[in-house]
From TrEMBL:
Descriptive protein name: ABC transporter
Biological classification of the source: Bacteria, Bacillati, Actinomycetota, Actinomycetes, Micromonosporales
Domain ABC transporter: 4-235
Protein family per UniProt: Belongs to the ABC transporter superfamily.
Keyword line: ATP-binding, Nucleotide-binding, Transport
Recorded superkingdom: Bacteria
Single GO MF annotation: ATP binding
Gene3D superfamilies per UniProt: P-loop containing nucleotide triphosphate hydrolases (3.40.50.300)
Amino acid sequence: MNIIATQALTKTYGGGVTALSDLTVAVEPGVIGLVGANGAGKSTFIKIMLGLIAPSGGSVRVFDLDPVTETDKVRARVGYMPENDCLPPDVSAAEFVTHLARMSGLPRTAARERASEALRHVGLYEERYRQIGGYSTGMKQRVKLAQALVHDPDLLLLDEPTNGLDPAGRDAMLALIHRIGTEFGISVVVCSHLLGEVERICDSLIAIQGGRLLRADRISSMTAASDVLAVEVTERTDELATRLGELGLPVTREGRMLLVPMESDLAYDQILRAVTDLELNLHRLDQRRHRVAELFTAKETVDV
Ligand SMILES: Nc1ncnc2c1ncn2[C@@H]1O[C@H](COP(=O)(O)OP(=O)(O)OP(=O)(O)O)[C@@H](O)[C@H]1O
């Protein structure tokens, strides 16, 4: 079953900015990366799924519910971690997360227990009675994640969860998200402009550019083997390139690697023979895999 399905979803803001255009996508459960450059329309998509803003055209269903007319039902099943800093500095994490649990409808005692549990899951149990204002950026991001988890949702929508974190903090946050997705059985949509980050922890990707869908697929399909052979020798790469050229193979060089299209089954054997004839040490010879970054035509659109 799809957890999210859109049909020709479009959002035009006042002033004529089209943030989403004709977006049709069906999303299965799992850890899903929503990637695109700044301004691609990721936050707009998330806000529409939460019923915070209405689409200008097309439709969206979350757990087969309409976020516009069944907003409460959608929010009961969805946890949201916003991008911006939005935490009150003068209360403790325990008080804040308990308060949000109460707002989601839990009785007082259950709310307190669930808040402690959510803060334990994100690694803030020991620090939960300290005021949020004294927390580091990484701890604040964890509080935001805990409040998204507190009402035991089936889907988490995380908007740029690694924002402002140093490399170690990023790794820890990504590991935590991956654990939530795999161990808790909650589906997670991780929204990011950093393709390399989401690629590490997601099963599938939705890539958008300028509000339009580039591709939605499992990462394993996106990185399927290509019809190009990559060959690398430990030294004398130029000599091998010349020899392969003489054999009529169209060779291109990429750093220390030579790339040869597999136009026929012969290419593989010809390369091996050339390496042997020249008495070179073969470092690698394999079918090159597609890279997810190839999705984005212009290199500068995402940081890989
Ligand atoms: N409330 C608004 N009014 C007018 N234009 C808006 C509004 N919110 C977003 N936009 C515009 O819509 C486009 C998509 O913005 P959105 O925030 O959804 O992108 P994003 O992919 O989340 O980018 P970022 O990573 O920078 O948050 C941008 O051009 C943005 O300037």
